[in-house]
Structures are given as structure tokens and as C-alpha cells.
Design goal:
This protein is mostly helical. The protein has a domain of 43 residues. It contains four helices and no strands.
């Protein structure tokens, strides 16, 4: 028998949980940080984000993501 992916099923719930992540637990780039701040990624903002990532690491994006 196939998988039960109907909304509310255990398999559907498990699939959604696998897709959820927060903060810096996955790789991110400067453009991601700019967009997490709710801004349009301009060259100046991307460069600022790049410096912030070099300085603070994952903490740079964790400030903006749950």
C-alpha cells in the first residue's frame, strides 16, 4: 500500500517537519540574509551582509529567523 500523505496523516506531518528549519542550521548566503531582513538585495546590502556573516557567522541570520 502507498504512503498516506493526506493532510493530518502522520506521514504528511513528518514531511512538513522535515521541511521546517530555523536560523543558521542550514547554509545561507548574503542574499538570504538581506531578504531575511525584508530588504531588496542590492550590491551594497549584499556586501554589508557578507561582512556581517564573516563577523558573526550563523548568529547574523538567527537574529531575523525564528
Amino acid at each position: 500500500m502507498g504512503k498516506d500523505n493526506t493532510p493530518g496523516s502522520d506521514e504528511a506531518r513528518a514531511a512538513r517537519l522535515r521541511e521546517l528549519y530555523t536560523g543558521g542550521e542550514r547554509p545561507f548566503d548574503p542574499e538570504d540574509l538581506v531578504m531575511a531582513r525584508g530588504l531588496e538585495p542590492t550590491p551594497e546590502r549584499v556586501e554589508e551582509a557578507r561582512r556581517l556573516i564573516e563577523e558573526k557567522g550563523a548568529a547574523a541570520i538567527e537574529r531575523y529567523l525564528p
